[in-house]
Amino acid sequence: MRAITDIKEMQHIALDVLIYLDKVCSKYGLKYFIVDGTLLGAVRHKGFIPWDDDIDVWMPRADYDRLADVIRQDGEKKYKFCTPQNTKKFIYPFGKLIDVRTGLLDDTSAKCEIGVHIDVFPYDGLPGDSEPEYRKFAKRCVYLAEQRYPAFTTWKQAKERTDKGHFYFAKWVMRKVIGGYNIVKIIDWYARKHANTYPRFICCLPAEYKYDQIMDASIADNLTELEFEGHKFKAPADYDTYLKKLYGDYMQLPPEENRQPHARKAWWK
């Protein structure tokens, strides 16, 4: 086992995973596109944000559900698509495409060992035809998603948060009784149950996104290719609207004190 401590090495491994995803999606007719900090990095840096090793993509729910089988069919043993449906004690309500030669622990008490990966988020159509309707539904999904991480915190961590009052502690107990893994299943079930096939708006409902991640469906319909670390990947053609909604003046660098990498441990097996 060898520790992976250099962010450049982490970025290189994650980039290879994205290259594979692009290849397998092209081969089997699946749709994906880069989002969040990955899209921002492509536009502002033509690659990774220097202090970030995350890669995020969105996929339509139907293609997301096919991805694990497609990767097995492709015969590539180096990668595995992990989801709550196919991986025991998986604490995330969305998928991670993992380099199985590596191990990784996020900064969480759940100790869910995965590997260096890219996050693959399924997006769904929001039900309803008006803003109040889809916001009401999205609010419920956001609330459910926010319960996930606290359900995996420890008794010690909960006691440290009692400065917020007994109400916080009572909510922690309730989440522990329900169980973090059950919350993950509830999030997935709720998102699937109400998905709209022909929506005006889309969102990645299982993630802890706020309302700024509710996008017009045309964002996913009209794609282009953007350069990222010397390679071309699918991205929203109207990336300007997307990035302004998330980040405002997205070409402006954040203060230096906010340029921090993720706190996690990774290694070669």
UniProtKB/TrEMBL annotation:
<dbReference type="GO" id="GO:0016740">
    <property type="term" value="F:transferase activity"/>
</dbReference>
<dbReference type="InterPro" id="IPR052942">
    <property type="entry name" value="LPS_cholinephosphotransferase"/>
</dbReference>
<protein>
    <submittedName>
        <fullName>LPS biosynthesis protein</fullName>
        <ecNumber>2.7.8.-</ecNumber>
    </submittedName>
</protein>
<keyword id="KW-0808">Transferase</keyword>
<feature type="domain" description="LicD/FKTN/FKRP nucleotidyltransferase">
    <location>
        <begin position="25"/>
        <end position="248"/>
    </location>
</feature>
<dbReference type="GO" id="GO:0009100">
    <property type="term" value="P:glycoprotein metabolic process"/>
</dbReference>
<dbReference type="Pfam" id="PF04991">
    <property type="entry name" value="LicD"/>
</dbReference>
<dbReference type="InterPro" id="IPR007074">
    <property type="entry name" value="LicD/FKTN/FKRP_NTP_transf"/>
</dbReference>
